[in-house]
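Thought: the user wants the 3D structure for the chain below. I'll pass the sequence to the structure tool as-is, report back what it returns, then summarize two notable features.
Action: structure_tool
Action Input:
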Amino acid sequence: MQIYLPIAEVSVNLLLLMGLGGLVGVLSGMFGVGGGFLLTPLLFFIGIPPAVAVATGANQIVASSVSGVLAHLRRRTVDMRMGGVLLAGGLVGAAAGVKIFNVLKGMGQVDLLVTLFYVVFLGIIGTLMFVESLNAIRRAGKPGARVKRHKHNWVHNLPIKMKFRTSGLYISVIPPLMVGALVGVLSAIMGVGGGFIMVPAMIYLLGMPTKVVVGTSLLQIIFVTAFTTMLHAVTNHTVDILLALLLLLGGVVGAQIGTRIGTKLRAEQLRVLLAGLVLLVCGKLALELLLRPQELYSLAPLGAG
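Observation:
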């Protein structure tokens, strides 16, 4: 069943869109990521213009993240104070990211640079996470092997410290603010929730327990992506409401399923699965950049964004 999307100006299969939304919702509930790192490239692949995919994908992430965070709130695995600090940095980063996106769109280079952003970030994060997760699984398999979660590093020497009771941490607010700001920029430019960067940063940089990381990540993602969507709608007019609604319907259901699956797997197994997905999407995007396109020329008018 085909449906016409007015802002994207393309016709797509209705069930396909809802299925994509459901898949991203499952990832959101399982891993604490918005799922935009997978959704936005998939929208590229089915013919949605990158500018519309980025802005609308961020909108869908809000819905699936709300569904996921509600489930984690019931389990009391959300650090509200840490979420607030991450959010403060994220809002500033999102505002800066939308300005950068507008400049790239005006130059006509947004399609290429968004794809390059995906390849670079997904490649680095996926590789690091995959290697560390495999090491964690090997350590867990050795009887008597104990791993210290809280290791003192440069983060613990920074000023302006705050106590985060739910996470059991007493650290500076500067690293969480920086992580939040980076995620905000990526949300605006790439149409992602930023969980694929925020989750490993919260675990390995801040030393937060994995069970708290997922819910806290989703809490920050909700507000940053909502803010990003609003800015894109006002400045670029690239948010397709019909597309967002169809993705939303699948995403809300998928998030509840993903949360249930996530509770049945060990933290190390979840991180390996997430790393594998990140690397898979990275490889597909890199291949798209390297392969010779079927259409060498475009009939779009010069300067069209």
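Final Answer: Structure generated. The chain has one domain: 2-143+151-289. Residues 2-143+151-289 form one domain.
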